[in-house]
Amino acid sequence: MAVDDERKGMDWKERVWGYTGGGGMIQAFAAGYFLWDLQICLRYFGVFGIGLLMHAVAALIVFSLGFRPFVNFYGPTFILYELSSPFLNFHWFFDKLQMTGSRAQWYNGILLLASFFCCRLLWGTYQSLRVYQDCWAALHIQNTTSPILPSSSSSSFLSLISPSTLSNDDNPTGIPEMLAQRHMTGKEGIMRFQPSPSSIANIPTWLALTYLGSNVVLNTLNFYWFGKMIETVKKRFRAPPSA
């Protein structure tokens, strides 16, 4: 993400309506994981409870909507929440290996709290504010706003393989359209799934509410779990009361 020039050059329109292959791949992995997570939480609801079920549903919604495409830009951004997950798994393994209260678990607990706080609370809250701002702008965009201005090089290429240059008999599979999309670069490539600039209009209210509502659920759970994690780490290392 830090060296991705394509992401750095995006404006708010491209962050909302744009799509990149890298972002789509990350969202596909994330959506697949959370689909598995959802069925596990449903099957073992008595073990995982309502909190993890809500997390699975909200996360699956957030990452699946990127394929509309809708805020595909934020898929890689929000998957960074999971940087704290390995330390949470290590914490569980230390308990199972009879290492509860060990120095190793103490160090891991510090890393868990630090990574959770930085990745989910600080980074996550900041990026959530950014996506709220972008969605607010998209809800109030004027229909005359044009998100992209095709370059001459891209336009000349598209004219060479335009469907109009072939008859229906020569182009039964729509191959020229596919080639045109694959060879688009820059802003045209990012916005290639928008039929035309004039088709850009206000995003549906239900779409914004669904995405942002799921995001609020995830952030609320993160703050709640952070408090629980502090209690758990304290409990592991609290000295027993003297007799």
Describe the structure.
- With 243 residues, the protein is an all-alpha fold.
- The chain is 67% helix and 0% strand.
- The protein is built from eleven helices and no strands.
- The chain has helices at residues 5-8, 12-17, 21-43, 45-64, 74-79, 85-96, 103-139, 152-160, 175-182, 186-190, 205-237.
- Helix 7 packs antiparallel against helix 11.
- The longest helix is centred in the middle third of the chain and has 37 residues, at 103-139.
- Mean pLDDT is 81; it is low at 144-167 and 178-183.
At a glance:
The chain is mostly helical and 243 residues long. The chain has helices spanning 5-8, 12-17, 21-43, 45-64, 74-79, 85-96, 103-139, 152-160, 175-182, 186-190, 205-237. The radius of gyration is 23 Å and the shape is elongated.
Topology:
Blueprint lengths: L4 H4 L3 H6 L3 H23 L1 H20 L9 H6 L5 H12 L6 H37 L12 H9 L14 H8 L3 H5 L14 H33 L6
Proportion in helices: 55-70%
The overall pLDDT average reads 81
Strand content: under 5%
Structural class: mainly alpha
Task: Tell me, briefly, the overall form.
Answer: elongated
How far the N terminus sits from the C terminus, by CA atoms, comes to: 55 Å
Counting H and I runs of at least 4 residues, what is the number of helices? 11
Task: Output the radius of gyration.
Answer: 23 Å
| Largest sheet descriptor | none
The H-and-E topology, N to C, reads as: HHHHHHHHHHH
For this entry, give a set of tags.
single chain, mainly alpha, 243 residues, 0% strand
